[in-house]
Structures are given as structure tokens and as C-alpha cells.
Design goal:
This is Transcriptional regulator. With 103 residues, the chain is an alpha+beta fold. The chain has one domain: Alpha-Beta Plaits (2-Layer Sandwich). Helices cover 29% and strands 35% of the residues. It is built from 3 helices and 4 strands; from the N terminus they run βαβαβαβ. The protein has helices at residues 16-25, 48-52, 68-82, and strands at residues 2-12, 31-37, 56-63, 84-93. A 4-stranded antiparallel sheet has the order 2-3-1-4, covered by helices on one side. The longest helix is centred in the last third of the chain and has 15 residues, at 68-82. The protein is globular.
């Protein structure tokens, strides 16, 4: 097991391609995307979905601690443009050493 950073981003789907490009250029090559995310944020009761007519996306990615500064510096301006949130937490990664296919 080793320490990694978990990056969770909820943003307007319009910015998805830019955010994924930033992650990739920062050395974060793996991610998951969940589309059509709705919810209530800290800014009030209205959902972004109601106001913009565009869907929100949830992006989950993991990176090494030394890659995090670059991600934050590049993602922040994108989130400031259309809104969105980014949460970063410490977590542990367990890499599997034996795949079922190799048994």
C-alpha cells in the first residue's frame, strides 16, 4: 500500500474535456467519469442543472502527492469559469500483483 491523493471534481459537463486534458497533462492518466450528476451544493438550493440546462459530471481520479500541485493550479481556473467543486483527500492505494487472468 502507498499514499495517493484522491481527486473528486463535480463540474459542468461543458468543461469535461478541458478538465480531463488538465489531468492527463499533469500526469494523472486514469480517471472515472459519472455523467448526469445532480445535487445541492453550498451555494444554495438551485441545482446547476436547472440553471444552465447542461448536465453535471463527477470525475474521480487518483495521483501521486507530487503531481497534485500541478492539477490544482490548472483545474482551479476551469472551475472558476462555470463553477464546480474539487475535493482532495489522502487515501491508500493497494496495487494488485496477480490478476485472475494470470493464475
Amino acid at each position: 500500500m502507498h499514499l495517493v491523493k484522491k481527486i473528486e471534481i463535480i463540474a459542468n459537463s461543458f468543461e469535461l474535456a478541458k478538465i480531463l486534458e488538465v489531468l492527463d497533462k499533469s500526469g494523472v492518466h486514469g480517471h472515472a467519469v459519472i455523467r448526469n450528476v445532480a445535487g445541492k451544493g453550498l451555494r444554495g438550493g438551485a441545482e446547476d442543472l436547472d440553471m444552465t440546462m447542461l448536465d453535471n459530471v463527477y470525475i474521480l481520479a487518483f495521483c501521486m502527492p507530487e503531481e497534485l500541485k500541478s492539477v490544482v493550479e490548472k483545474v482551479r481556473p476551469i472551475l472558476n469559469k462555470f463553477g464546480g467543486t474539487c475535493y482532495i483527500t489522502d487515501t491508500m492505494e493497494i496495487r494488485s500483483l496477480k490478476c485472475v487472468a494470470s493464475l
